[in-house]
Structure formats: C-alpha cells, structure tokens
C-alpha cells in the first residue's frame, strides 16, 4: 500500500470515528437558532430634566447661546475616551444603553463594567446590545452581567456552536455563511438619553491605551442634546429587532462560567462578577478619573445621524434594499466638496462606485487625501488584500495615499494615548472631512464590508472648529508616522517615509515579512472585495 493512501474505514482508529461523529453532531445540532420568544420590547425613556445629566444638558445649551441643538466634544485620546464613558456611567440615574461590536474581558472593561454594575444597583436600567461574533472564550465572561438585577444583555445575529473554540463555532455555521458574514458594527454609549458617544472604539484595553503589545489610534465624539435622541432611537431599532436575542435564550449562567480559562492558562481569570480579569500584568493598571462634563469645551453645530437599518443583516428581509446605507450617505457628503476631502479609514476597499466618485471629484480639481493602515500596522491582513488591488488606480487618479507605520514615535503616541504605551500602533479611526467644514465620525470603514455586509452608525457634523481640531490632532501622524505611497514612471510603487528624507525609500510593503506577502498573494485571487 502506498505510504500516503488511506486505510479502509473499518480500520481507522476509533478516536477518529468518534471525532467525526462528534463533528457531525455539532454541525447538525447547531443548524438552527432557538425561538426568540423571551424578547420583551423596551424603548428609550424620555430625557428628564430632573436627572443630573438632563439638567446639565439643558444648562450647557443655555450657556452656549447657540441656535444649534446639539453640542459636541471630540474624544481624540485614549484617556478622554475612557474618562467620558466613566463619567456617563457614574452619573446616569435612569438609563444606560450600550451597543457594541466587541466588548473584551480585560482590565479597562472591568473598570467600566464595575461602574455599570454599580449603576444598576442604584436603579439605573441597563441595556447592552452586543454583536455575537466575538462572544467566545474569555470574552464571553462579560455575558455574566446579564444575570445581574437591572442589567439586560442581548446578542445580535447569534452564531451557534461551541464558544470555547472559535474555529468549530464558525465551522458549525458554514451552512448559514451569508448570515454569519453580516455583523452589527455599530458603536453607541448612551446615558439618560441626554449624553451619547459614537465613533470607532469598541470596549477593551487596546482602545484605551492599555494594550500590552499594541494599541489602536482611534476617535470618538461625545454629544449632548437633540442628536442623542436620534442615537437612542437607532439603538431601539436594533434592541427590538427579531435578531436581538436575550442572553438567557442562548446560554445559561453555568455555561458562561465554564468558559473561564483553566488554571495555569495564560489568560487572566474573570472575577466573581464575570466582568474582567482579577489581576493585571505586569503591573497594576491606572485609569483616568471620570471626565468633568460641565467644564468641557463644547462645540455646538448642526448635525445629522446616519444609521443603517438592522434589516440589512437579515438576508431574507429586503425592506431596507432601497434605503441608502451609511457609506452611501458619506459618498453623498463627499459630492459637496469643492477643495479637499480627507479620509481616515483603517480598512480601505473603495469598490467601483466609490472609485467613480473619486474620478468625478478629481476632474473637478478636488484634492483627496487618504490615511489607512500599512500591511505592517493593520490588524486585518486580509482586508489589506482588497486595498492593495486599488492602490495603482487611486494613485493614477491623483489620490494622495498615506499608510500608517506600525512603530510610532512617542510624540505621536502621546497625542492619542499615554506616552508610556507600547510603540506599536494600529489605525482604527474612521472619519471623513470635507473642505475643512463638514465631517463624519462613526463606526464605518470606507470599504465594501461596511457598505454591503455590516451595519454602521455615523454623525455628520457641519463645524469648521471641530474639523480644525481633528485635523490638528491627525497632522502629526501624517507628518511623522506614515509612509506616502508614490507611483514611479514604470508603474511600480514606492513608499516614502515621512517626513521626506527621514529614512530610505521602500519598494515593497514596508516592515512586512516575505512570508506574509506571499501568503496574501496566494489568497488574493480567492478573496472577493465584499468579504474583506
């Protein structure tokens, strides 16, 4: 018998037969979701002037003397992003509504969720809506909050399968691959229907400058006033959607506790409340104090909220087919440009329609500047495949391309987090600025996944002051933390370290390994843009 031929089935080891049988049971037993019959509709409560946050919102509006109904405060650093969320949690008296793609069970999340638990204990109604893609392994421990009085957690678009093993979980859902690909990517943090946060950040150490090896460079905006009610209405649409399953429908408290890392694991164990690690390594972390909301430099400006319909995630629901998506709304915003568009998107896969829009804008003389991740800085190498397909065409249009370096100088890191954080960084900010007067901040990437697969939310704000503040914060990164991509006369690409002359030019994706580049080259023909 040839060395690599297979033995007859009857002679295969019994453990292999048992494994195959178990796999078939997993695939068959997880084919369908349970009935979502425990979901009780609930809605945002009217903003009450009687709550401290409601009173403060009214006072800030009156003090501003502005005719505009919403005030904004940029959360450009990791510290302000954390302290603003902590302030809203500690000061809420009636409601807390959190909507996220991912909540990681780590030190910073533990600090925030301890405050959430304390809010529930004083009578605040807490609703947490979480996409189900990342609720596995240690991160599933945050779901134990669902069993705390006053807290309700729902999982959006659930994925069946064993949460202790991400591969088997995905494998068990391959029969429903199209639905599994659709994810709720929205990010909202709302308190008393009076203050709210949206932007690029999920909840976890890497979003708040506390990562051990790398951190995200990210942006959020804190809002107070009229647009917060629109943000709450968007939350309610998802919360009461049939795809939002109460945790208790899918998991028992015992099943969640069983996902705690075993003794000796490198993962930190969850505390008795299931809301994060009991210890931090290598040293105890320190976190910012709660923001003093009343003393912040609020900017009052006209705005509109763009929010995808949750029906976008249901392949069988076509009610939103003719409704413009958030990304399409941003394309319409770009159409207003007369001078310059600045795009910051960590995952940038424009697609044909966006390329057509860029061509129209360039013909009108509009300057287009794009900042995205380099292959070495991205946390999603497959997404880089889609971006790389468009580089030459973008440069041929005259689009200026900048790719962020993975290793950042302390001056750049300190602008977005603490100067003592790791030197490695990955871009996670999502924003568009038009002519220095209109901007958007939200959860969306400028890629086909955000346009076609995921749901997103974004604020469009007409404000020169806020646009200028963001530009001033991003400029040091563009000037000192990027590679500018250029096209040479022979058509090949060249990466020029910024500022020019500060280092040698590169002729392939900088700071990346030949092995990684080879793997992506092999995979590229098999990876459609809309799945990257």
Structure description:
The chain is α+β, with helices and mostly antiparallel strands. Helix content is 32%, strand content 19%. It contains 16 helices and 20 strands. It has a nine-stranded mixed beta sheet with strand order 9-4-3-2-5-6-8-1-10, with helices on both faces. β12, α11 (351-363) and β13 form a beta-alpha-beta unit. α3 (78-91) runs parallel beside α4. The longest helix is centred in the C-terminal third of the chain and has 17 residues, at 381-397. The two termini are 44 Å apart.
Which assembly state applies to the chains in this document? single chain
* SS field, number of helical segments: 16
Helix content: 25-40%
Please compute the radius of gyration using only Cα atoms.
24 Å
* Dominant shape: globular
Decide which structural class fits the backbone.
alpha+beta
Residue runs with pLDDT of under 50 for 5 or more positions: 1-30, 262-269, 278-282
Mean pLDDT rating? 87
Strand order of the largest sheet: 9-4-3-2-5-6-8-1-10
Strand content: 15-25%
Distance between the termini: 44 Å
Number of strands: 20
Main pleated sheet: 9 strands, mixed
